[in-house]
Amino acid sequence: MPCASCGSRSTPARGPTSQSWSPSACSQPDNANLGPSDPSPCETVRPQGVESVLGWQILASNLPPSLCLFDQPVAEANQPYSLPDMSYSQLSRLESKYIEFLHTKNPILDLNELHRMVLHVAENGPDWSTKTCLVALVCAIAVLSEAYPGTITRSGAQSTPSLDQDDESGADAKLSLQFWNIALKRLGYAMRENSVEAVQSLVLAGIWYMHRMEPLEAWKHFNLAGAAWNTLRLTRFPLGDLIDNTDTTPNEHTILQALYFTIWKSECELRLELPVPGPPLINNTYFPLAFPQPPRLGSQPSTPEASESERSWYYYLTEIAARHLLNRLVQMNSECADTPTERQVSLLIGRTEMMQAQISDWYTSLPSIFHFAVPDGYDADFQSDHMIFVLQHRYFTLRELVSRPFVRLFVDGLIDGMDPLIRARARSFASECMQFCMLKLSQTVAYRHQGNWYLLRSMTTSSLILAAVHLAQCRLREREAAGATPTSENLMPPEAWISRVKDAVESAQPFFDETSGGASNMKQMILAALEAAQQRSAWCG
After folding, report:
1. Residues annotated as region Disordered (predicted)?
2. Are residues 316 and 258 in the same domain?
């Protein structure tokens, strides 16, 4: 769908083969629909994570006060550790693992240059350079990363991933910390350099913290990476020409743009969950493209490596397009009134229909290699391909988030007494939200990767939304038993929602047992919601 403000496409255009992708540069930022008299996005954007749902009246009155759901102290990262094995065989193995598990999702490194750095460190040992810092970070992340399982049973129990020599045992966690200790001592040197390797090191530090489910530390380093990127831009490109600059090689040009979008994407993702300031890179004055300019896809000889690189870039661009949509949804939901009038609800319905059309456009623009079927009910086919799995989950999140405000209207009684046609349309959206909450809970896969913390937050949010609908239904039954007139537009929770939540929690049990990132507190909150729902059911019959 063309951008409403500038007419160019905000999602990549699909060619005849569904694989020729040439995203146009949309000159409008994600908040382009704001009028000149509207408040700035920095003033209006509110996180849409677990805490926003816990603020609903129905949950606030039925659940205990919330513990911190995003941060708990983790001490071992600051302890001294001995040097790890830094032989070529060890470093080469971890280099390959990083490329397989991380680089294909975020192509921010020059792989030829990375290999030269690995060879240098293996032959000469670690020095105090930023290059050694970068190699240590690559290894620290690779040790923590696990292979995507590729299979899952309907009960929620998963097959054991094949992890080669690594699993999430104490020994591997210790090995990761040994490499991190090397990098930590050199990050200060990286921060004083204006180099591509310095920016890459800060980004990788943020990614390492996300693997450990420490979102605040990750945000700090992504923020530093954004400042370092801007400093590099000002020193290397004083005229601001980052699009057609002739002083850089095509590969360096691609890396610089990929770094920009990886930092931007990482900060936006955290901003969806946490009350942190907007990314310093969010000002499109500094970078006018809506997408990075990839290498010339399809121009290289057909080899397995070239095909994988091409597939990686299609995935990367699709992810960025989804992030633009999520940013617009966060903006839209942030502007919802706490107690909306009938006119405001009517306007919200119109904006929701517009956003659903854009989500549909994103879905239909997917390259054929990433196609997945949209489920009609509460169950979806499990995707054996990791990239398709992530993109399917992005689609579920988009569909859930765009319709979430309507659930609150019903469970908190904010839509009572409004026009029946408005109530009926709002009920349809709220039902869609419940459907996609159920679908997200059905797609729980527990393996160590950068998105584990987001997975737990998403599970907690979906569980609380379903619990809120259940509690509201119990409240309605109590009122009807007391003589209130029944309404035809009330929400009914899915019958199997409790078992779906329990299966999801069981699937992610290893991560819920950790204290970092508020994981164990999230589990307590889910269990408290289940207990409140079951107790309320017993009271209302």
Report:
1. 1-46
2. no
